[in-house]
């Protein structure tokens, strides 16, 4: 099928859309209530974007604690989304529940649940399978079901299409199924859903048309591909691309350090080229819900089919090794100053996986802290957005005034915006894993 929603030949796109709508009926034009399953870092911003666009939303989450936090506004959102939550939460346009049967009243259902990996980097589809089973169990004729959770290629057919067929539904005829990967960038006001195009692959042309109308309310445009599988692989390519380039940036940071060159200066210079280069920056590792996890869904699937993926495997191995490189560098710097790692007082500045969020999922800081503690170091942390964290050695609370204490070593891991880090410029020993503290007198990099 020719894509019907690109930014090229707009007249042809509109003709194709109108032909589809004429074929399957005008009722697809304005979906009424939209159900959003999963209200985490993807689902809640998705729900708020849809409400802002004029639709009504019922948000479903199995966690009573998460629902309580949302109702109490104890959620990590950018300011514009926080305002939307406050504006709509007590209106008929936006409601929240743990009762999945409420989805029967929805015209469209969007599934936004996490797809993590376990400690062995094997995909954990527990939440995804449970959510799809619940949606299939309450589905009714005429609904549109859109899966957005990143997973393996073929998951939409396996977890939604085939179970719906077993219930007697015919996708594309009496129920409509599609895959459209989430593109949420937590903490980034410049990457709001309404500014970010969506990729969409429906099971049939009718499925595509229904899903496109649902998603068009909260995206600038929808780029349609020929199948759910193409949309699924699109997401895996996006995040594997990022993983490979972050791994390359880390490698070049090490090279630059050995050659006595400032890697950030080099990246800025390379970025002046108007074609063929995209800047990626080195750091202490990769965290969050995408890059450390998503490529492993592809590797897991291809490994089962004995398809070699040497570039992706090397990139993911390099990313996984980065936090340990921070620990080894910390040990080296302390030894150079005449101190053993054991019993040294070490402060980690920022433990969220990236600036501007309170999310510590897959954060390299957690592995760094655990390994430092395992070597006998006395580790503390400070983070303006994270109050406490559980480590292998027990709970830790954020240091309220870290500049007042004497630390043998400070590791700069995450520098939140609008936080005063000026005190780091005068500290005698700083391991700058962010590569952004160029004025610190005691600064060292990996």
Uncertain residue ranges: 1-29
Would you report the number of β strands? 15
| Main sheet overview | 8 strands, mixed
Global geometry? globular
State the name of the first-level CATH class of the largest domain: Alpha Beta
SSE ordering? HEHEHHEEHEHEEHEHHHHEHEEEEEE
Percentage of residues in strands: 5-15%
CATH architectural type of the largest domain: 3-Layer(aba) Sandwich
CATH superfamily of the largest domain: NAD(P)-binding Rossmann-like Domain
For the terminal residues, how far apart are their CA atoms? 49 Å
- How much helix is in the residues? 25-40%
Strand order of the largest sheet: 3-2-1-4-5-6-7-8
- Could you say how many structural domains there are in total? 2
Write down the Rg.
24 Å
Task: Describe the structure in your own words.
GO terms for molecular function: NAD binding; oxidoreductase activity, acting on the CH-CH group of donors, NAD or NADP as acceptor; oxidoreductase activity, acting on the CH-OH group of donors, NAD or NADP as acceptor. Pfam families: UDPG_MGDP_dh, UDPG_MGDP_dh_C, UDPG_MGDP_dh_N. With 446 residues, this protein is an alpha/beta fold. The chain has 2 domains: 10-226, NAD(P)-binding Rossmann-like Domain (Rossmann fold); 265-444, Rossmann fold. Helices cover 38% and strands 14% of the residues. The chain has helices at residues 10-24, 43-52, 64-71, 79-88, 126-138, 155-166, 205-215, 228-259, 263-270, 294-304, 310-336, 364-374; strands spanning 33-37, 56-60, 94-97, 108-111, 144-147, 176-179, 198-202, 222-225, 345-349, 378-382, 388-391, 394-397, 409-412, 430-432, 443-444. Helix 6 (155-166) links the parallel strand 5 (144-147) and strand 6. It is globular, with a radius of gyration of 24 Å. It starts with 9 loop residues before the first helix and ends with a strand.
């Amino acid at each position: 099928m020719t894509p019907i929603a690109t930014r090229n030949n707009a007249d042809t796109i509109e003709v194709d859309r109108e032909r589809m709508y004429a074929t399957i009926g005008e009722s697809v034009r304005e979906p009424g209530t939209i159900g959003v399953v999963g209200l985490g870092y993807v689902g809640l911003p998705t729900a708020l974007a849809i409400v802002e666009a004029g639709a009504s939303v019922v948000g479903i989450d199995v966690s009573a604690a998460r629902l309580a936090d949302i109702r109490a506004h104890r959620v990590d959102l950018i300011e514009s989304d926080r305002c939307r939550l406050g504006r709509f939460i007590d209106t008929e346009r936006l409601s929240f529940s743990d009762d999945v049967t409420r989805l029967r009243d929805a015209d469209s259902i969007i599934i936004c649940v996490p797809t993590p990996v376990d400690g062995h980097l094997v995909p954990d589809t527990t939440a995804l399978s449970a959510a799809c089973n619940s949606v299939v169990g309450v589905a009714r004729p005429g609904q549109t079901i859109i899966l957005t959770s990143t997973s393996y290629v073929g998951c939409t057919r396996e977890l939604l299409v085939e179970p719906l067929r077993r219930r007697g539904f015919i996708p594309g005829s009496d129920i409509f199924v599609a895959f459209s990967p989430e593109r949420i960038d937590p903490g980034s006001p410049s990457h709001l859903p309404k500014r970010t195009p969506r990729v969409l692959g429906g099971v049939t042309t009718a499925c595509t048309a229904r899903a496109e109308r649902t998603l068009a309310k909260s995206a600038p445009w929808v780029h349609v591909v020929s199948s759910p599988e193409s949309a699924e692989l699109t997401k895996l390519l996006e995040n594997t691309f990022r993983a490979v380039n972050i791994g390359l940036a880390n490698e070049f940071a090490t090279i630059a350090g050995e050659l006595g060159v400032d890697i950030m200066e080099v990246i800025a210079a390379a970025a002046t080229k108007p074609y063929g280069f995209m800047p990626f920056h080195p750091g202490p590792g990769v965290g969050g819900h995408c890059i450390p996890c998503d490529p492993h869904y592809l590797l897991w699937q291809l490994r089962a089919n004995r398809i070699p993926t040497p570039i992706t495997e090397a990139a993911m191995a390099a990313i996984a090794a980065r936090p340990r490189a921070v620990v080894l560098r910390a040990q080296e710097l302390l030894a150079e100053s005449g101190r053993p790692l054991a019993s040294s007082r070490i402060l980690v500045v920022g433990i969220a996986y990236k600036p501007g969020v309170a999310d510590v999922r897959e954060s390299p800081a957690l592995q760094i802290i655990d390994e430092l503690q395992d070597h006998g170091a006395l580790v503390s942390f400070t983070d303006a957005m994270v109050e406490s964290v559980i480590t292998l050695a027990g709970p830790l609370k954020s240091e309220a005034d870290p500049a007042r204490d004497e630390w043998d070593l400070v590791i700069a891991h995450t520098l939140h915006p609008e936080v005063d880090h000026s005190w780091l410029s005068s500290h005698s020993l700083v391991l700058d894993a962010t590569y952004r503290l160029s004025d610190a007198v005691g600064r060292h990099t990996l």
